[in-house]
Amino acid sequence: MDSLVLPWVNAETMSLFLAEVAQRHSDEFIVMVMDQAGWHLAGELTVPQNMRLIFLPPYSPELNPAEHLWDSLREDCFANHVFANLDAVERALTAGLVTLEADIDRTRSMTGFKWITSISLNAI
Question: Which of 50, 68, 71, 80 is the most exposed place for a label (fewest CB within 10 A)?
């Protein structure tokens, strides 16, 4: 799992995220599954050469592995908390993301859907 906490979402920040993931995994070919958010489909989105994007059908959050990560973050880091300011929210989010990134088995159990883990690169 790779993540960045950025101040907004648009094609520019999504391109930064894709570039960061591509750099972290420069010796790998990355197949990234994502929903059809506007910033994922924007014409000005820059997709690195070692990456292929696969888009989920519209309105299918149950298929999106990232939704399970967000559910976990909401439950583990934000439920029943009152934050003093936005910086405190960002610190909680960052701590939660670091925890998920470090716990490969837990993250895999939430996101390793059979249809993802069995994708053949020949089919892409």
Answer: 80
